[in-house]
Model the fold of this input.
Amino acid sequence: MISEKLLKELNKQINYEFYSEYLYLAMSAYCESLDLEGFSNFFKVQAEEERFHAMKLFDYINEMDGRVKLFAIDEPKTSYNSLLDVFEKALDHEKFVTKRIYTLADIANEEKEHATISFLKWYIDEQVEEESSFNKLVKRLKMIKDDSHGTYMLDSELSQRTFIPPTE
Ligand code: OFO
Done:
């Protein structure tokens, strides 16, 4: 059984993950508005990943005999100044989520809640990957700047991304 304090934060995290799904769908729609289908695809797949993160928490709370609470999802930002702006905002968002996961891990540690400490390890590792992936794309977009050829090359690369549900 998870403590009330930890349960409250885990439920809040479900909301943050669904918000992330929404935010990345908004970013996908922005890229679509620029006719950049590869970038749009990248964010659609990212949104699917976020849904997976939310549902993994949902299932964990149920498994631990806790009560899942779903809160209203905030409206995501829908307009951006450029592709670089989108990716910089996405990277900032991932840094925020990493801090949230660390807060959860701190509470689980304080409460010596070993099952949740073990469960959160997956999210800690996942955040390393998420930040790294956005960081690399921010750097590439800075190199590309206004070069349309470079933009279309990256668009074509990102069109190949598919959602593969993690097995563990
Ligand atoms: Fe759920 O990792 Fe991104 O936000």
Q: What stands out?
A: Residues 17, 20, 50, 53, 94, 97, 130 surround hydroxy diiron-OXO moiety (CB under 6 Å).
